[in-house]
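Ticket #4471: structure output looks truncated?

Reporter: J.K.
Steps to reproduce: submitted the chain below (213 residues) through the standard prediction queue, then opened the result file.
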Amino acid sequence: MKKTIIFPDETKYVGEVKNGKPHGKGTLTYPDKGGEYIGQWKNGKYHGQGELTFDNGEKIIGNFINGKHEHELINNKPIIDYNWRYLKGESPDDYNDRVLPNINHKSIKKKFNKTKFLKLLDKFTDERYQFFGKKIIFQEAPEKLPASLVKEVKKNIAEKIFSTEKQNWTTIPEFYKSIDDARNKNENDELILQKLDSYNNFVMEIEKKYETA
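Returned output as attached by the reporter:
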C-alpha cells in the first residue's frame, strides 16, 4: 500500500509501507537539503536497487544493503567480533547492530588475553583496583589465571566471607544465624522453610568452595 510519511525533520517519504516503516518501493526527499533517494526499502532502510542523490547533485546508483551501498560495505567490511571500539565512520546504530549480538561469555572468554590484561592491571597504582581486576578474572575464567593468583584470590575471599567480626557485607556465620532466626520465626510455614533450605544449601556450596583456601 502506498502511503506518505512526513518525519519530524520534514523529510518526506512516499511509497510502500510495512509496520509504519518504508518497505518496498518508495521515494524519500529532503526538502531543506535537496537530497533524494528513489528505490527499494526494507524495514525503514535503503535495501535493494536504488538511486541516492545528494544536495550537491552527486549520485550513487546500485544495490543498497541495510542503508548502505554495497560498494561501501565491501571496502569497509567490519570485523564481526566483540571488538568494542567504534570503527571508522560507524554510526551508533551500526555499532549496536555489529557488537551487541556478538557479546557473550564464550566470545569474551575465547578472545581474552591473560597476559595483556594482567599487564594492564599492573599500571594501576592503587592495589585495590589491581586486585579487583584479578577477582573479575577469577569469577569468569579462573583457568586463565596462574595457580598462585588463584590461591591468592581464594584466600582473600575466604578471609572476608568467614570473618566472625561485623563487616559491611554478609559473612557466612552471619548468614547462618539469620537463617536460624528465620526458621524459628516461620517454623509453621512449610513454603518459607523450603525457601530457607534452598538458600542455606546455596551458601553451603560456597562454603565448601572456599573452606580449604
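Triage note (M.O.): checked the attachment and the full C-alpha cell line is present. Residues 77-82 have pLDDT under 50 and may be disordered.
Status: closed, working as intended.
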